[in-house]
Amino acid sequence: MLTLSPAVRIYLAAGATDLRKGFDGLAGVAREVLARDPLSGALFVFANARRTRIRVLTWDGTGMWLMTKRLEKGTFAWPSADATAPCVTLRAEELAALLGGLHVEVKRRPGFERR
């Protein structure tokens, strides 16, 4: 079980990512495609094309962490890639729901953001 603070920033890469990439490759995707700093301490979440595997990349101040989850049955609910929005921002409870197998659709009302 992954326990996260509500203050942690989580960025989900929409669409498929080549999960054969390791630390440096996924950090490059975070930097180039998602336009985020992989050394910021945020969580970067990636899925393969079949949506049966997820990888989470983060920096803890001393090194990179790369966590992987593989489903034996079923698939993860995952947003499709969009050129205008290659990155979806999640809250900690939304990531927990996604990893738990629930369908997460992020639709926030305008002006309704936690600070």
- The best one-word shape is globular
Which class of secondary structure composition applies to the elements?
Answer: alpha+beta
Radius of gyration: 13 Å
**What is the helix content?**
10-25%
- Taken in chain order, the helices and strands follow as EHEEEEH
Query: Helical element count?
Result: 2
Strand numbers in spatial order across the main sheet: 4-3-2-1-5
The major beta sheet can be summarized as: 5 strands, mixed
Residue windows where pLDDT falls under 50 for at least 5 positions: none
Mean pLDDT: 86
Count the strands? Answer: 5
What's the number of structural domains?
A: 1
**Which band does the percent of strand residues land in?**
15-25%
Distance between the termini: 25 Å
Which helices and strands occur, and which strands form pairs?
Layout: E1 10-13, H1 23-32, E2 43-47, E3 53-59, E4 64-70, E5 87-90, H2 92-99
Task: Please describe the structure with a list of short key phrases separated by commas or semicolons.
115 residues; alpha+beta; five-stranded mixed sheet; 5 strands; globular
